[in-house]
Amino acid sequence: MNIVTDPKTLHEFEKHSIKVEKISRRGILKGIGVAGGLVLAAPLMSRQAFAAYQTGASKMPHGVVVDPRVFVAIAPDGIVTIVAHRSEMGTGVRTSLPLIVAEELEADWSRVKVRQAHGDEKTFGNQDTDGSRSTRHYLIPMRQIGAAARTMLEEAAAKRWGVPVSEVKAQNHEVAHAASGRRLGFGELANDAAKQPVPDINGLKLKDPKDFRYLGKGQVSIVDLHDITTGKAHYGIDTRLPGMKYAVIARPPVTGGKLTSFDPADALKVSGVEKVVEVKGWPWPSKFQPLGGVAIIARNTGAAIKGREALKVVWDGGANASYDSAAYRKQLEEAARKPGLVVRKEGDADAALKSADKVVIGEYYIPHLAHASMEPPVAVANVTGDKVEVWAPVQSPGGTREDLAKTLGIPEDNVTVNVTLLGGGFGRKSKCDFVLEAALLSKAIGAPVKVQWTREDDLHHDFLHTVSVERIEAGLDKSGKVVAWRHRSVAPSIASTFAPNVLHQAPFELGMGLIDMPFEIANIQCENPEAAAHTRIGWFRSVSNIPKAFAVQSMVGELAAMTKRDQKEMLLELIGSPRIVKLDSVKDPWNYGEPYDSYPIDTARLRRVVEVVADKGKWGRDVAKGHGLGIAAHRSFVSYVATIVEVSVDDKGKLTVHQVDTAIDCGTYVNPERIQSQIEGAAIMGLSLAKYGEISFKNGAVEQGNFDSFPVIRMDESPLVTHVHIVPPSADTPPSGVGEPGVPPFAPALVNAIFAATGKRIRALPIGQQLET
Amino acid sequence: MIKVKINGQEQVWDGDPNLSLLWFLRDEAGLTGTKFGCGEALCGACTVIVDKQAVRSCVTAISDVAGREVTTIEGLHPTGDHPVQKAWRQVNVPQCGYCQAGQIMQAVALLTENPKPTHDQIREAMAGNICRCGCYQRIENAVHLASTGV
Ligand code: FES
Ligand code: FES
User: Fold this and answer.
1) Is A362 helix (H, G, I), strand (E, B) or coil?
2) How close is the Cα of A654 to the center of ligand 1, in Å?
3) What is the pLDDT of residues A10-29, one digit of tens each?
4) Low-confidence residues of chain A, pLDDT below 50?
5) 3-state SS string over A134-160?
6) CA-CA to A82 of 20 to 30 Å: which in A39, A734, A763, B62?
7) How far apart are CA A235 and CA A448, in angstroms?
8) Are A684 and B123 inside 8 Å of each other by CB?
9) Residue A246's closest chain B neighbor by CA?
10) A673 vs B27, B73, B92: nearest CB
11) Per the CB < 8 Å rule, is B38 touching A232?
């Protein structure tokens, strides 16, 4: 345990924190391990440690570290410091993981401080904050860390009193000996506790959930709440270093394009501009490496932006210079109408479609989407000699560190990544190109540099959500039962960002709603025809689930309409009997990286969220004229979500969302209050992408520039009310994702509602002007 | 030489008079509570109050506020306990929190002008402030709470 007791060590600990805080105001801490006594052993948990259930955590890069000495420090005044090693982008993870430790530690939350870990996966284990994984991978490890620290405190107290450890008990920040009435606070015990051996993680007794004070209760606010409301919270954009210069970069408008020439003269005339510097670019596909271009270095960001406007620059477009979204859509549609690589096959869908009484065909188009986090990419870097220190809002602190080391050609030990708060991430900030840019520029000019992306930069050079055509053919027999299902999914893959000539989706993309489709249909065939990428494709909150759930759940609505059945009844009939879905014909079912035994596709749970949302959201209620209800359900990130949307469309085509009800089953949970906020937010993001979301290309370049051409939902068009219904888990259900799974069912529930209200079926997103008459 | 009073303190600027108030606040005065989101008066992240009115600092030149009083999130209340800030915490509004300084300043200006707005008035007055995390329901409730106490 990194228990700080020795006053000298404590002084070091504080000095260090203060030094960092001075530079960067607050909220980030470097080198938590400086307090001494830290053992950098990375004892990967033995598998038995996950006694209750297995997760994919140990298979992530650098696995899991379960060591109280890494994550917990107790000072003589009793203040407990718990390290948050994942990135906070609005999900509440910086509160909930330390809260889990505090629960088991029996710490009083009001005497807990949270410290953000720097990027160091050898010390902290995997830090990639993505894939809705943090709680599901860390609930048990964080409990074990807290329990181990608690045990060490109990052992220290028992020794001091000369009583058996079985007679003492930690409770609410102190250890008590009931028989004698003696008590010692955590601070008084810290010194002795630090000398105790770390107990065997596998032998630890975890708390009985009925004794939980915090977990599952939802009465704890996020640790940054006060700072956020007073402007003190420290985001990537807020780092200021002495002598720091401000930079913006002009980048090639076409992905893979190159700088031909530039003339800095006019830019240098702008007041406040100090230098113009070329930035190295990498050949396409460039992974997370910078796109290259020309940087304007100035004394403030405003001057840098003005300087860039004055810069004369000529680009070469390169191989993607003819990327045109309208033409590309046609290509995708053509590909979807021909057979493609078969990725799942049960029965004989071809034959069953041929002999079907009726075939319903739906072809759905979902365009590129930009993340548009409110804080655009931004990073500060300070290169000194063969060392670099960065301050950045990254979802991937460990990967960022590795990439900085590679890009600068220095050892990883010479790289310090300080993780700030993220002003939204949604997957964009898993890619560290903007941090690498800052480091290259700092090295070039020999001073600390902040690279600021403008909103235009963000929309022009995002790692975009893919663009897809999803074509589903459903065959019905005479009784109206669906007997055949063929789903072709055509979309450029995220893998194309990492390797040339990628034409098929990766297992993790196919596994987000295509091959894991849970319907009970005799003949199923899933195909993946080829598609080449012409821009950087990346993860966007809920990833491939967006297009796939949109297609599958829209088709449920279409089938209900065709057979004149209630949408919810149609949905339940297709989901079929409560069962564990077998995916025998699928080569790599992926399953979000989780073992299938712990996290199978359980249709009973999917049915349950449908029933719960139908009950609580009053499915089938009478609605006013011009109103309609729509429903959709989807399993993603091993959670189950169902959503009901009530809309109205007036005679001019104006869409209003009156009410949203969402039920989520995310297994065992930590902070229901944050689940609620994530699901409320997912409805807004779902509505944004359904109504407006589109990034399009012309002559290789993005056509949109800011929130005028890439609108997102604002308060005046947000749902009038959103209700969140958390399905209580049955005992020992492993935790599953929360950040992403709320998004996929929203858009199909919305278009199903629009159909109910108007009889108009939306098959291409965004809705845009399609409802206008 | 431009003089402007920010959170009660006089600040002086002798650089480009067209520099936006946003970048002056953030980069020159070190007041980083005010955020950048679009630079085009489209998102409200940079909202500050100039003489009681909400202003998008990203499209306001520093010369436009010469001799005027600018209040940023840092200057709203000495201990952060303005009724709007308190309401924000009571309702647990923020997710990532990045937009919230702008939202709070906009709400303060709204309540100065209209102390008892209806829900529709709140939705309209706050529509210039984007929250990509989607905290709108809670923002609406917090403004209502700050205005009514319930
Ligand atoms: S940054 Fe000023 S309105 Fe968006
Ligand atoms: S809380 Fe994240 S943008 Fe509003």
Assistant:
1) strand
2) 27
3) 333 333 332 222 222 222 22
4) 1-51
5) HHHHHHHHHHHHHHHHHHHHHHHHHHH
6) A734
7) 17
8) no
9) B27
10) B92
11) no
Which residues does chain A have within 8 Å of residue B31's beta carbon, measured at their own beta carbons? 231
Query: What's the pLDDT score for residue A732?
Result: 80
Task: Report whether residue B96 contacts ligand 2, using a CB cutoff of 6 Å.
Answer: yes
Q: Is A711 exposed, middle or buried (0-12, 13-18, 19+ CB in 10 A)?
A: buried
A-facing residues of B in 110-129 (CB < 8 A) are 122-124, 126-129
- A324-333 burial, b at 16+ Cβ within 10 Å, e below that, comes to ebeebbeebe
Run of H or E including A457: helix A455-460
ipTM of the complex: 0.99
Question: Which pLDDT band holds residue B134 (cuts at 50, 70, 90)?
Answer: very high
Which pLDDT score is estimated for B135? 98
Which of A435, A434, A431 has its CA nearest to residue A415? A435
Tokens standing for residue A402: 């590795």
Q: C-alpha distances in angstroms, A371 versus A43, A118, A534, A686, A754?
A: 36, 25, 18, 12, 25
Read off the amino acid at residue A382. Answer: N
What pLDDT was estimated at residue A619?
Answer: 98
Alpha-carbon distance A247 to A438, whole Å?
8
According to DSSP, the residues that pair with A452 across neighbouring strands are A378
- Contact check, Cβ <8 Å, B127/A715: yes
Q: In 3D, which of A275, A276, A282, A277 has the Cα closest to residue A258? A: A282
Q: Are A451 and A437 in contact (CB under 8 A)?
A: yes
Handedness of CA B144, B146, B149, B150 (dihedral sign): positive
Nearest to B89 among A88, A226, A299 (CB): A226
Touching A: B residues 48-107, CB under 8 Å: 72-74, 76, 80, 85, 88-89, 92, 94-101, 104
Q: Which of A463, A608, A452 is nearest to A535 (CA)?
A: A463
Q: Which of A238, A374, A677 sits opposite B37 (nearest CB)?
A: A374
**Which letter does DSSP use for residue B130 in this model?**
-
Distance, CA of A145 to CA of A201 (rounded, Å): 8
